[in-house]
Design a protein that fits this description.
- The protein is mainly alpha-helical.
- It has a domain at 9-52.
- Helix content is 66%, strand content 0%.
- It has two helices and no strands.
- The protein has helices at 9-19, 24-57.
- It is elongated, with a radius of gyration of 21 Å.
- The chain starts with 8 loop residues before the first helix and ends in an 11-residue tail after the last helix.
Length: 68
Amino acid sequence: MEIKLNLTLDELNAIISVMGMLPFNQSHGIVGKLREQAIPQVQAAEAAAKASDEAVNEPAETEGGDAA
């Protein structure tokens, strides 16, 4: 049975930090699964934010060519 959780990035980092205090043989599998699932989501969110910023910062096109 799988459980789906929704966590903020700070919450996930706190969990990974605490897991890092456990012996490696107890924590590495879970930490690996957390990272495996989180990294693509973080990358997608960063790419979307960058695309959004670029769209907002594009210079507006003017009609009729150069202003006199």
